[in-house]
Amino acid sequence: MMPIWTKSGEKHAVTLLKVQDCHVLRYVSKEESGGKTAKLLVGGKNVSPFSKPESAHEIFKEAGVPRKQKVTTFNVTDDAIIKPGTPLYAAHFRPGQFVDVTAKTIGKGFQGVMKRWGFQGQPASHGQTKTHRRPGAISTNKAAKVYRGKKMPGKMGNIYRTSFGLKVWRINTKHDIIYVNGSVPGHTNCLVKVRDSKLPTYKDCNKNPPFPTFFADGDEELPEDLFDEEIFQFTDPSIKFA
Amino acid sequence: AYRVSNDGKPTKFQPPPKPVIIDRKTQKEESRFLSPEFIPPRGRTDPLKYYIERKDMIQRRKVFNIPEFYVGHVLAVTTADPCASDKSKRFVGICIQRGGKGLGATFVLRNVIEDQGVEICYELYSPRIQAIEVLKLEKRLDENLMYLRDALPEYSTFDVNMRPVPRMAHEEIPVNKLQVRMKPKPWSKRWERPKYNIKGIKFELPEHKMKAAQKWSQPWLEFDMLREYDTSKIEEKIRKELSEELEK
Predict the structure, then answer these.
(1) B178-211 b/e with 16+ CB inside 10 Å = b?
(2) CB proximity A237 to B under 8 Å
(3) N or C: which end of chain A has fewer CB within 10 A?
(4) What backbone phi and psi angles, to 5 degrees, belong to B108?
(5) Which A positions 7-26 lie with beta carbon below 8 A of chain B?
(6) What single-letter DSSP state applies at residue A114?
């Protein structure tokens, strides 16, 4: 995470996400998947092929791509279908866009009710016998049972969570890095899924993005760094308020 | 026996001149200064992240001059402020601590203005800072002068309109071995404890209290191998990178 300053002098914290060897693996049509839209299977980060059996390598062999650590699905409209085997770059996103980021949260192991659900617990003194971090009552008398989904101690973390509506501030095309506003679930160097935001406020925010994706053919030559309009770039002199 | 010279007269034995070792290596190391925020902390982050952060820091340093300074220097910082008339603010103070790594590096300046102690934490790479001037160059015995909060206010007062003290020669920043006198206890932190390792305070506490404070000493810490972080090679690489980039 890094600080970033706007032209009005405000500071924002930014997370860096690297797009490492992403390829489209397979196209699944609407009828095949049984959903509302067609799907594209995308794989991230290259990994050694020797730790899995040959049967697991079929998808990757069809696409002509080394084995990937993570395979995710993206729901895609029919005009945005991409041929399996095309690499995906960070330039697929543009600064000023809004993005949802999904990842597995940091695993905390078996945790008590105070840490996991934020219960208040009991006082430290004034006669409490062996009861300081316990849940207390778990149901009422009339119910005569414990409801399903009652908040109790258990394994915390290591589940998929999404942060919605994160602004993309900057894109580094040379190293394929996306600068995303705020924090993102997961530990450092964990695998993360980045999607266009589904929030209704940001529906019309994508002004001419590269559609269906950014193809590094050599036709479009992008500068090494793409900045949002409001970012203070370090090539400019210090800010002066008029 | 005396040696006989060419003249025939006996001369006293002249011992050969002692070899003078000129330590060129140590001289070179002292003159090269690397700002502490460039050294990456120990961790499992990808070095690519530090490389990219350093590129941004170097870019900022090309446009705006950040002078070499240590804890104990007296600095004057002018920042842009939309609320002030003239749209800029100037603050003079002694640097008590330098923290943070990378672009978020900060330094805290302390001064006493009209009997009120004021500390301001500035970010080195913030675009709001318009100028940093070093008014007085002097290092202190410690790297963290937070104890000035509990010292008598005369040690933290610096004239706001102070003129910059000219630096004599381009070598050796002088170390001020000042022992600061403190206000009566209670202090914000127990500075007499060995964990802070402060050498710049004149402790006027009774001997039994100083001895009792040594109970919290951890003499095994300096031998702990897992805490060792040798930064010499990393520093060399970063210095090379810096000098190459700044020359461009």
Answers:
(1) eebebeeeeeeeebbeeeeebebbeeeeeeeeee
(2) yes
(3) C
(4) -105, 125
(5) 9, 11, 16, 18
(6) H
SS3 content of chain A, % helix, strand, coil (to 5): 15, 30, 55
User: What pLDDT band is residue B49 in, cutting at 50, 70 and 90?
Assistant: very high
Domains in chain A (CATH in brackets) are: 1-19+90-120+151-230 (2.40.30), 20-88 (3.30.160.810)
> Structure tokens of B17?
């001149």
Q: Which residues contact B88 (CB under 8 A, 6 or more apart)?
A: A240, B78, B79, B80, B81, B130
Q: Give the Cα separation of B187 and B184 in Å (integer).
A: 8
Inter-chain residue contact B128 with A239, CB threshold 8 Å: yes
Give mean pLDDT, residues B101-113: 94
Q: Which two tokens stand for residue A154?
A: 């258990």
Q: Place B28 in a pLDDT band, splitting at 50, 70 and 90.
A: low
Q: Give the pLDDT of residue A113.
A: 94
Q: Which residues pair with B176 in a beta bridge?
A: B140
Q: Which residue of B has its CA nearest to A238?
A: B127
At A123-169, the pLDDT tens digits run 999 988 899 999 999 999 999 999 999 999 999 999 999 999 999 99
Strand stretches in A108-181, DSSP E: 109-111, 154-156, 160-172, 177-181
The mean pLDDT of B4-24, rounded to a whole number, is 75
Chain B touched by A224 (CB under 8 Å) = no
Q: Which domains does chain B have, with CATH numbers?
A: 36-57+64-176 (2.30.30.790)
Query: How many beta carbons lie within 10 A of that of residue A169, not counting itself?
Result: 21
B207: pLDDT strictly greater than 90:
yes
